[in-house]
Amino acid sequence: GDSVITVQLTEEDKVEDDVVFYLVFTGSTVQHCTSTRKINPGSLETISPGHDCCETVKVALCASREGHPVLVVAEESFQFVQDEVYDAAQFLATCAGNQQALNFTRFLERSRSPAADVDFWDEKVALAFRHLKLPAEWNVLGADQSLSENIPRETLMHFAVRLGLLRLTWFLLQQPGGRGALSIHNNEGATPVSLALERGYQKLHQLLTEEGAREPDSWSTLSHTVHSGDYSVKHHRGLGVYLLTAEA
């Protein structure tokens, strides 16, 4: 989800300015409708929806004009695939509280990418986490809430801070157990806060310690979502488009 989609219109589809185009994605259990913006007379742009599973869906380009019926201009198939970043997010979410798995993730630090790649990966994995269907009882510290904060252990917050993942850290802070993870020491005696300080991650340290710290700039900060029952409406301010998602 949240990738930019460009639609190229044929000559016969280039119409007057008062025609509004929509894309409708029909999946097995979820349907999405996105508005579009015109880049030029022959091109439209919109945001791809975050889908609930990997499948090929039908996508229809619809045209609407006041006083006229809605027309289906064209239909095509569109495939949602599960990439490595989504796999990583799913693995991390499943392993919250699993010490063996979280200790294994520390190997990632040894093959850490250059800063630019870390920034790109941070953006992608934070978006993937936002699109995961996390259980209502999901917690950053794992399923066993009886563990005392005094018991040294590795947490997802340690993982995010160690790799300098600013946007993922922000996401975790907003989840149950996120704030509690800040005071937990790992086996080396480090908290996420002390790790950020030790590694010179100033922005990350401010994010963890300053009251009223704002969400880091990212693609997701351009979006605002409102949920209501089986429906959600998302506004992407960057492109000025809206996305309606409904569970079938």
TrEMBL record:
GO CC entries: actin cytoskeleton; membrane
Top-level taxon of origin: Eukaryota
InterPro entries: Ankyrin_rpt-contain_sf, Rho_GEF
GO biological process: adrenergic receptor signaling pathway; positive regulation of canonical NF-kappaB signal transduction; regulation of Rho protein signal transduction
Secretion signal, residue range per the UniProt entry: none
Gene3D superfamilies cross-referenced by the UniProt entry: Ankyrin repeat-containing domain
One GO molecular-function entry: MAP-kinase scaffold activity
PANTHER family: A-KINASE ANCHOR PROTEIN 13, AGAP007712-PA
UniProt name for this protein: AKP13 protein
Record organism: Chloropsis cyanopogon
